[in-house]
Amino acid sequence: MKLKPALVCFLLVASVSCSKEPTQQHAGTAPPKAEAVGASHEGPHWSYQGDTGPATWGTLSAEWSPCGDGKNQSPIDIDQTVRADLPEMKAKFPPASLRIIHTTHVADGINNGHTIQINYTEGDVLTIGDEQFKLVQYHFHAPSEHTVKGQHHAMEMHLVHASPAGKLAVIGVFIDEGTHNAAFDPILSNLPATTGSETHIENVMVDVNELLPSNVESYRYDGSLTTPPCSEGVKWIVMTTPIQTSAEQIAAFRAIMNDNNRPVQPQNARAVETDRIATAP
User: Fold this and answer.
1) Is the alpha carbon torsion for 22, 36, 33, 66 positive or negative?
2) Predicted confidence (pLDDT) at residue 277 exceeds the cutoff of 70
3) CA dihedral defined by 122, 7, 144, 220, rounded to 10 degrees?
4) I need a surface site. Which of 10, 20, 135, 192 has the fewest CB within 10 A?
5) What are phi and psi of 31, to 5 degrees?
6) SS (H, E, C) the chain
7) Residues ≥6 apart with Cβ < 8 Å to 133
8) Residue ranges of the domains in the chain?
9) Residue 155 pLDDT grade (very low, low, confident, very high; cuts 50, 70, 90)
């Protein structure tokens, strides 16, 4: 399939800080795992509320200490930005058959559903300088995890890319309520009724290109996984322009998963770079 010109431009943003030294990872933590972004089945029970909610994640396991004392955590509130020039990057997203999973933790009879995740196995290649990344999976949060000047969006989609060395680049796409979005129909028509196991629907194809905004401007910063173990060293690329889905489509997602967003974390000394043209406040 021929790659859209807009998508080629869009993926230029994923080369954030390619010429820079990588952000130092929190001492004692393992490299980020692509499958851990958005949901984790390893370690003790965690949730988004109560005694096992985000405020306690760093105390639930020694391996999860970055959740409590990490200095480069995600998500963040995007407010002040720095204009940046971006080196070139190449990518391709062929359509893929639907591999969908509802990941969850159930404890004490309470379903603390984490996300709807679509695993991707069609072999796309995203090249950043001399490194190659593959799209591993994409998943959803409601409301958005990142905020812009303190404001949430209705949802946020995360597209998780991994290099052979285990480095991660995650593209975030905001989702707002608006017009019906037919690109999401294959996913919404096949939302899993049960949790845990992957459902592979070979005759249903999803074109990732159609899930992305046509405006290719982005925010970029160095961060972490937004779920335990909160490992740092993740390159975040958050698109400035939201896509739209209908109120009914958002409600369908939220009927299965809702309030699965980690609160924003301190930005500390990190800069948020952007290719967006600065405007007066």
Assistant:
1) positive
2) no
3) 110
4) 20
5) -60, 150
6) CCCCHHHHHHHHHHHCCCCCCCCCCCCCCCCCCHHHCCCCCCCCCCCCCHHHCHHHHHHHCHHHCHHHHCCCCCCCEECCCEECCCCCEEECCCCEEEEEEEEEEEECCEEEEEEEEEECCCCCCEEECCEEEEEEEEEEECCCCCEECCECCCEEEEEEEECCCCCEEEEEEEEEECCCCHHHHHHHCCCCCCCCCCEEEEEEEECHHHHCCCCCCEEEEEEECCCCCCCEEEEEEEECCCEEECHHHHHHHHCCCCCCCCCCCCCCCCCCEECCCCCCC
7) 14, 125, 126, 127, 161, 162, 163, 167, 169
8) 5-18+37-274
9) very high
Options 26, 102, 105, 114, the catalytic residue: 114
pLDDT, average across residues 56-72: 96
Half-sphere exposure of 127 (CA within 13 A, CB side): 8
Give the integer Cα–Cα distance in Å for 113 and 186: 21
Pairing of strands 126-128, 131-141: antiparallel
26 is annotated as an active-site residue? no
Listed range (34-43, 46-55, 159-168, 188-197) with the worst mean pLDDT: 34-43
The pTM of this model reads 0.80
pLDDT at position 108 over 50: no
Q: What average pLDDT does the segment 156-168 reach?
A: 91
Q: The dihedral of CA 96, 88, 155, 195: what is its sign?
A: positive
* pLDDT grade for 4, boundaries at 50, 70 and 90: very low
